[in-house]
Amino acid sequence: MLPYAKCDIFALRTHVNRTAMSNILKIRSVNDYSRYLGCGEQHPLVSVIDYSEVSPIRHSLNNYGVYALFLRDDADVDLDYGCGRYDYNKGTLLCVAPGQIGGKEDNGERVSITGWALLFHPDLLHGTPLEKHIRDYSFFDYRVNEALHMTDEEHDIMVSLMRQIREELGKNPDGLQNAILAGYIELALNFCQRFYNRQFITRKIENSDILVRFDRLLHDYFEEGLQHTSGLPAVQYCADKLCMSPNYFGDVIRKTTGDTAGNHIRRFVIRLAKNGLAAGESVSQVSDRLGFEYSQHFSRMFKKVEGITPSEYCRRFHSR
């Protein structure tokens, strides 16, 4: 199936580089995937595939060694991942990074799909500006249920870019072709980032619900005394409990609150601390109750958030 990392999507055919024991399609080059689909090779480091030209295709569980963008126009396909099953509608975009695994094992079924795939090898980025900030595109670590759902206009922009890249691949290679291809890919990624930013805004109600569940999770964490065995709640822990990838969770919280998930946790902890200090608890009592190993660590966090030490806060509060 079309390759999506960590949480995958599409479908394929043939059998290339499969491991006998795990039946995973190893996509170490862009052309491993092209050959699986029966496509001709276009370039050693870049491939653009129009699924309408190769459909119907078979599912596959994939191990990715390349980056990829999968634009799914339509299909009736669902996948198991994380906390549930997910389906894909028109205008869905999923992004894959090397080292991720996803998809659906080949069960012999052939699926008719339409859409596009853009695969590019990390070697293409060597010496380019994109090599330095490819990791800034956090959506490469989003899960399938955190995919980008595009508007018609956004969909048309991505399809236009796919076609432009494929047109460039059809030209005779020269000394500038790789730089031009990297430039097109960076432009596509920047559009993806813009579209995700739009999606965060248009889903404000849903994101507000995530924030409410985040705060409830933190409240329950301390009510149940987990801080005494596991320390302060971590962003990874919260993301897992809310069935999100850490990157998507962090981006949702940042777009909703204007701050990081880590800082939101720290502010929550300090609110609990201030309640205790106002109620007459000592600094060491509050530190112990909140799960700090050393009261100095608590005092350091308190001052970083509030600008004053816990002792100064107590003096000011009780002198009112």
Keywords for this entry:
Jelly Rolls; 320 residues; 46% helix; 2 domains; 12 helices; 13 strands; alpha+beta; single chain; Arc Repressor Mutant, subunit A; 3-stranded antiparallel beta sheet; elongated
Distance between the termini: 66 Å
- Give me the side-by-side strand order of the main sheet: 3-12-6-9-13
How many structural domains are formed by the residues?
A: 2
Q: What is the number of helices?
A: 12
Shape: elongated
Poorly predicted runs of 5 or more residues: 1-21, 75-89
Average pLDDT: 84
CATH topology of the largest domain: Jelly Rolls
- Which percent bin holds the helix content? 40-55%
CATH architecture of the largest domain: Sandwich
As a percent range, the share of strand residues is 15-25%
Radius of gyration: 24 Å
Strand count, sense and barrel status of the largest sheet are: 5 strands, antiparallel
Tell me how many strands there are.
Answer: 13
SSE order in H/E notation?
EEHEEEEEEEEEEHEHHHHHHHHHH
Structural class: alpha+beta
CATH C-level name of the largest domain: Mainly Beta
